[in-house]
């Protein structure tokens, strides 16, 4: 009687490959989990998604809450720009009459599709915001003017839907740009030309709102490094904001054949230029909007 073979190979190469796979699995089990998570956290999000399919052990590691937190933290600290627009849970609408905001309404966007506008009371009439607004810790800030001509920073608490106001000076309203500086509202203004920053600029002024209730601002002047003129090379740049790594982002605001993003480091007072590829596909001179601090999160996979 002939015996039946059960998927056994006499090929020594096949036997060695199977043995090496077992050894690799055993080696993986001996690696500390903290080291494994640190290695995984250095991979891009697309690679993390593929690693989910390798084995049940890998998938269980990648689904751990502490790994999700580790990956999110590292993603938050890295340089990322998103050229897109995010949806918001609430919409603030303002109607104007004779350049003054006449009515304030809030619309909450819900998944069930029920939409309802609510009127919001505002104690001080003020001019319609013309330049950038910024949201920090759930508070929307924008520069404006009171009827008597005083400069104001308007603060709208998105959660409680209430307005408050901070007295301001001319150097924090347009053409100054409002930014998030270490969790505080601040403004950036180039010198000597406040409208944009170029190779002829020598410094820029930063005003930081230290205490909103006491209307207290601090002032700092940052000198541009000696290599500034050579790095910028004739481009007219605009402040886009400040990253979570404490770097100012500057761009030209319009598409060109060679589109650059510039990073100025507050702490080191250095400038870095990065070329963004793919902008040639857009019509020359097209408006470019830059959104800072785009963060990847493995919880969404």
Describe this structure in words.
The protein has helices at 12-30, 33-41, 45-51, 56-62, 65-77, 228-232; strands spanning 81-82, 90-97, 100-108, 117-120, 134-136, 139-145, 151-157, 162-167, 177-181, 184-191, 203-211, 216-223, 238-242, 247-251, 259-265, 270-276, 291-292. With 301 residues, the protein is of the alpha+beta class. It has three domains: 14-74, no CATH class; 86-168, no CATH class; 185-294, no CATH class. A four-stranded antiparallel β-sheet has the order 5-6-7-8, with no helix packed on it. Helix 2 (33-41) runs parallel beside helix 5 (65-77). The N and C termini lie far apart (55 Å). Mean pLDDT is 78; it is low at 1-24 and 81-88. Residues 25-75 form the F-box domain. It comes from Brassica campestris. This is F-box domain-containing protein.
Give a brief outline of the structure.
The chain contains six helices and 17 strands.
The averaged pLDDT comes out at: 78
Helix count, per DSSP? Answer: 6
Number of strands: 17
Rg on CA atoms, Å: 27 Å
* Strand fraction: 25-35%
> SSE order, as H and E?
HHHHHEEEEEEEEEEEEHEEEEE
Largest sheet: 4 strands, antiparallel
Structural category is alpha+beta
Low-confidence stretches: 1-24, 81-88
Oligomer: single chain
Shape: globular
